[in-house]
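Lab notebook, bench 4. Still working through the backlog of constructs that have no structural model yet. Next entry is a single chain of 143 residues. Request: give me the structure tokens for it.
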Amino acid sequence: MALTMAVIVGALIAYTLEKTSIEVTSLGVLCVLLLLFQIVPVRGPDGFNLLGPERLLAGFASPALITLLALLVVGQGLVGGGVLDYAARTVLALGRNRHWLTVLLVLGCVAVVSAFLNNIPVVVIFIPIIQAVAQRLRESPSR
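Model written out:
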């Protein structure tokens, strides 16, 4: 357990420092965990490794994860195609460059869409829109 926590802390530090891309860091963490549980296996009552490669990688076949990743790809395509720039300009025009009104409009859109869709896809869809709006308002996206 201590080794797993050390890998998690190392991953958090690597994500924070951003010396390598997120993809490389994530694959590195996955490889370290696969190697770790081969070197130090967690044995069940029958003597077999409970955390073998097939079990550690099984979560990547989850339909929810694949859907979420597909939405991220679609969202990035919308950013690259300029569609989100248009959406951000429309929201800003409606908000008349008033920060509070623009934020209320975006939150209203999110609330309406969230009433009909699952919340995770709504977050994935609106993150790039909110980032574009924040950039045009010269605000930090995290704020």
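Notes after review: The two ends are 35 Å apart (CA to CA). The mean pLDDT is 81. Flag for follow-up if needed.
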